[in-house]
Design a protein that fits this description.
Two copies of one chain form a homodimer. Chain A is 41% helix and 13% strand. The first copy, chain A, has five helices and three strands, in the order ααβαββαα. Chain A starts with 22 loop residues before the first helix and ends with a helix. Residues 1-8 of chain A have low confidence and may be disordered. The structure holds a DNA duplex (30 and 30 nucleotides).
Chain lengths: 110, 110
DNA sequence: CCGAGTGTTCGATGAAAACCATACACTCCG
DNA sequence: CGGAGTGTATGGTTTTCATCGAACACTCGG
């Protein structure tokens, strides 16, 4: 209702630090095939090079956007606006410090 | 249908070895508050001492039975029939060998 | 052999989550 | 400034999953 001042995608994405993420949330975030694919593909690319739309997953834009939102909320991904596109970074060190070995586990079997 | 020869709970529970468990399944199994509680409580008890009904979780028997089924399928729990009750064992070594650190992650914060 | 205790199965219900199509916001380039 | 490219928000559908109640199977102790 109302409050439609500026609802674009330029609101500076909300990030959650891995330290503030419960284990359950981390596991839930990774317990999805699409999100696992995103994380793996992201891990195989240089930092800040992959825009959201550049991933090879079988879902539409809306669902994709939602998945990235979940990954952000789990402290797995950091996003930055670069021109018209939103580029991503896997929070390797930070996430691994909070959940040692978890990321390695997911990446170990691509 | 039919096939109702022996549907009790004495059919020797089907077990899945951790080695045969996909990462996704392991994560999905642990991405549930009740199952996490079961695993933690089980980890804090001597082996083969806890029957299914002896856990302090806020769900009925049916749901509980289902949760144990999931844990078995993820290679997390082994069950054995002991008289009228079914006792449990956490597959620490085996599961940790397959998914190093994952169990520790869940147990680290009780 | 019956009854209490234990756990599984079935069917149904409700809530959560994934998904899509559409509409919109923002950036850039021509 | 207008259009193409990119991502988000919303609303509604579908699927998935946790849960319950009830019926059943099994074991053991009177």
């Amino acid at each position: 209702m109302a409050e439609r001042t500026t609802t674009g995608h330029r609101a500076a994405p909300e990030h959650t630090h891995p330290d503030d993420v419960p284990v359950l949330a981390a596991l839930a975030a990774l317990a999805d095939p699409v999100r696992i694919a995103l994380v793996r593909e992201l891990a195989g690319s240089p930092v800040w090079t992959r825009s959201c739309g550049s991933f090879d997953v079988p879902v539409g834009k809306a669902a994709l956007s939602h998945h990235f939102s979940v990954l952000r909320g789990a402290g797995l991904v950091e996003q930055r606006d670069e021109g018209p596109r939103r580029v991503n970074r896997l929070r390797r060190e930070e996430f691994d410090a909070r959940f040692p070995g978890l990321l390695a586990l997911v990446l170990r079997e691509e």
